[in-house]
Amino acid sequence: QDIDLIDILWRQDIDLGAGREIFDYSHRQKEQDVDKELQDGVEQEDTWPGEGEEVLARNLLVDGETGESFPAQVPGGENQTALSLELCLRLLEATCPFGENAEFPADISSLTEAVPSESEPPGLQNNLLSPLLTGTESPFDLEQQWQDLMSIMEMQAMEVNTSTNEILYNNPPGDPLSTNYSLAPNTPINQNVSLHQASLGGCSQDFSLFSPEVESLPVASSSTLPPLVPSNSTSLNSTFGSTNLSGLFFPPQLNGTANDTAGPELPDPLGGLLDEAMLDEISLMDLAIEEGFNSVQASQLKEEFDSDSGLSLDSSHSPSSLSSSEGSSSSSSSSSSSASSSASSSFSEEGAVGYSSDSETLDLEEVEGAVGYQPEYSKFCRMSYQDPSQLSCLPYLEHVGHNHTYNMAPSALDSDKQMSRDEHRARAMKIPFTNDKIINLPVEEFNELLSKYQLSEAQLSLIRDIRRRGKNKMAAQNCRKRKLDTILNLKRDVEDLQRDKARLLREKVEFLRSLRQMKQKVQSLYQEVFGRLRDENGQPYSPSQYALQYAGDGSVLLIPRTLADQQARRQERKPKDRRK
DNA sequence: CAGCTATGTCATAGT
DNA sequence: GTACTATGACATAGC
Predict the structure, then answer these.
(1) Protein residue with the closest CA to the C1' atom of nucleotide C1
(2) Is the pTM of this model over 0.90?
């Protein structure tokens, strides 16, 4: 139902107050601007320039007894009511903030699918209020709305709409799209009711829907509009069968105590339905979601990160900063490249390394007595993933405080403290070159070095273990640094995604606000049109007994409420069936 | 002393 | 097959 209403408005180039940019998915407001607008609340609604352009009048034919509407010619036309769509159009123009350049690129029928059709307690609803505009959306529908809206955006991107102005103003009067404005012949509706002047009078920017001016319009004067004529043959089925406007605009259950006339006694048509509180509600809800994500999920993520492998997300806790991330890779490559550049000979390693740690089982007690050995700290330095720049100058510091020297004298302990276990082992085994060389020399040079000395099997085994462990130590350092970098990058990604999500939520709020504005304007239009309808006695129609109905082809019908409710129920069933 | 971090080491898979 | 790298898992020192 909502769909067709909007569809009609759409066809008639009725700008509902939302500019194209509102629906342009690619249109991204700056976040701070969005925030500001969210605070501003109501915006730009009262500066809409009306446009005086040619408009089409439409006639409505409704069978007052049966509720059926049809375009049949009524002799004499006495039971017809001239209902000027011009009123509608001008009203809409008057409420259009975007003027002639406003385009509605999305298929409005699809757009309205994003509008939830919600019902409201009858007592809360004005009889004239359209369900389109009623109530607050269920929060559970919001996501669906959003998805729908997104799909609209996609459609919009594909579909360059014909200017709705063309549709509206270029349609010939006999165009079925534009003239299905009919009343049933039996309907006792005064055909002389003309809302043309009234509409003109009500089209000022700050028009009042029920101003005394408007209400005092001559009702029985000769119409300046074409009297209701039977619309062309397409009307009966196409206009009636497609959409029940009453269901669209009226709640299924009418408040029986509500005004029976659509006159000035109508309460505030927008009631509490359109107040900013609704938007605030949505905004708050979205923001709550966002907040929830930020606080709960982010902390959750942080928890996970923090608990994983004992690594902290916080970069300040990381021994390596991000800026040093490239250093690790470059450190390994530079060290290897510099080492390989000096490679001059090639040796084939004799025998497998054999990761037996037997050599390691050399008791340190055997080593502890070894003193006086001064390793060449400055010649070869191990890699440091903490600071690659110190690659070639760091002494062995990794086990400072690890006292593996046992019963050494304090002086010896001081110098020996900086030796690794492998250093001690090497010293104990009288290895004639430094562990740096053992670890960092390219394999060719390493083998060449080994060949220069007569080494026992135990020595060779220890040397290979030292080389293996040394290389693995560097590898472990690099590995850990990479892991930290990966975690930091993931953390950044999470933050980026959180920002994206927050931005999308803000945009969603904007879209929803636009939708609400559109619904508000549609509702106003409905009330205005209905409230100006007069029967043959010049009396307004009771919203509890009659309703307007839009057909899919653009026609507007005045039908009895009972029929409207029937069709409304029928329309409600359809989507459910479709879902099945 | 428990918990955490940093680091070394081993085993293993992959290059 | 060797040499090397990457990485998970474990051990240990130190805070």
Answers:
(1) A352
(2) no
